[in-house]
Design goal:
Radius of gyration: 45 Å
Strand order of the largest sheet: 1-4-5-9-8-7-6
Bound molecules: 3,4-dihydroxyphenylalanine
Helix content: 40-55%
Strand content: 15-25%
Oligomer: single chain
């Protein structure tokens, strides 16, 4: 039935409705009409047209009913028409609103379905880099010392001469300063004191002892700098791990036992160690630790019969410096040299990495050529 058949443009009198009892049937027809059309409303534009058709202020169905049926109705009919109209309005409004929500969420679902990601597809593989060999060796060293009770501390790469030299018992004009010539920072005129790039990680011995009472067991991984010309074994930047153990009863045996344990863990149980007297201003006695050459298994000769090219036939390779902490150093940190004792060591990480992994040029660590880096995933 077309909507025009409902007689919305006529008054009730013109439609021949004179009694209140006729009103409900009239509204039932309107409602049936609503329902018939409502079924066909599926998308937003249909919904808008439908809404205007029924709720439009000027000529919507409900407005027409108000204008043509309700307002001109006789007082006897007005009551019944008003009640039915209110009921119809409530019904129409809630139905239309509910349909709007349904259409909106349906549209959302459809959009989601369109953009749905197929998680079963293989992903894009992004190559993940790996740790630099130096970083890996740092980690190996740290793990070994960590497992025997050392903790790890780090410190500034820009240091004062006091921490880099003086407090380590290296006064100004001491000849060992020549070995550690370094880069000084240009400071503005009038700046208090000098600053330099640390030549070793040993300053952290002092910084740590200043802050902590014994016992102290630390290792200090980090970068160091020296004014060296680059060649196969020298670089102006390289890496060290400093070690320090100070307590009330640390002996030379603790010292050699700890170092030997480290060396065997790092290179494998078959290497032998030895130490030779040496000199460092901050240790007394001082030693140089050697390891039996890992390349020729300490024989000094190569597999082919000639001399081993790595240890040059010496069978031993110099590893690092170490010693018992010089009592003078305790004076700089207010430790009582009569009550404490300890040992210290300082190893070159680049050198250890070269020995362990058979690398013959320190420069490859800094060139970052992926053909080199990829060999150590
Ligand atoms: N700081 C020394 C250097 O860079 C290495 C060193 C030697 C550190 C002996 C120590 C030590 O702690 O006891 O050459």
């Amino acid at each position: 039935m077309p909507i025009s058949d409902l007689g919305l443009d006529k008054t009730l009198a013109a439609l021949g409705v004179a009694q209140a009892s006729q009103v409900p049937a009239l509204f039932a027809e309107v409602r049936a009409h609503f329902e018939g059309h409502f079924k066909t409303v599926h998308d937003e534009s249909e919904w808008k047209m439908f809404r205007d058709r029924w709720l439009g202020r000027k000529s919507g169905v409900l407005t027409q009913i108000t204008e043509n049926w309700l307002k001109p109705a006789t007082p006897e009919l007005k009551r019944a028409v008003g009640a039915s109209l209110n009921e119809l309005r409530a019904y129409v409004e809630t139905q239309i609103e509910a349909r709007r929500t349904a259409i909106e969420s349906g549209a959302e679902e459809a959009a989601l379905a369109r953009g749905r990601i197929d998680l079963s597809l293989p992903g894009v593989i992004r190559p993940v880099g790996s740790r630099h060999l130096i970083r890996q060796v740092f980690q190996e060293i740290e793990d070994i010392f960590f497992s025997i009770g050392f903790s790890i501390v780090e410190g500034p790469e820009i240091e004062t001469p006091y921490y880099n030299f003086e407090a380590l018992n290296i006064p100004e004009f001491h000849p060992v300063r020549d070995d550690m010539d370094t880069f000084y920072i240009d400071l503005p005129k009038g700046a208090p004191g000098q600053l330099l790039l640390r030549t070793h990680t040993s300053p952290m011995q002092i910084r740590t002892m200043e802050k902590r009472k014994p016992p102290v067991r630390i290792i200090v991984p980090g970068k160091v700098y020296r004014r060296d010309n680059p060649d196969a074994t020298h670089s102006f930047i390289f890496h060290q791990v400093e070690g320090l153990a100070v307590d009330s009863d640390i002996t030379f045996c603790d010292f050699t036992g700890t170092i030997e344990y480290f060396v065997k863990q790092f290179f494998g149980p078959s290497v032998k160690t030895r130490f030779r007297p040496s000199y460092f201003p901050f240790t007394e006695p001082s030693v140089e630790f050697d390891v039996s050459c890992p390349f020729c298994s300490g024989t000094g000769s190569s597999a082919g019969g000639g001399t081993c090219s790595k240890c040059k036939g010496a069978a031993w390779i110099e590893l690092f410096g170490a010693g018992m902490v010089d009592p003078a150093v305790y004076g700089f940190v207010n430790y009582d040299a009569k009550k404490v004792s300890g040992f210290a060591f300082g190893m070159g990480v680049d050198r250890l990495a070269m020995l362990k992994y058979g690398i013959d040029d320190i420069q490859v660590f800094f060139q970052n050529d992926v053909r080199f880096l990829r060999q150590f995933p």
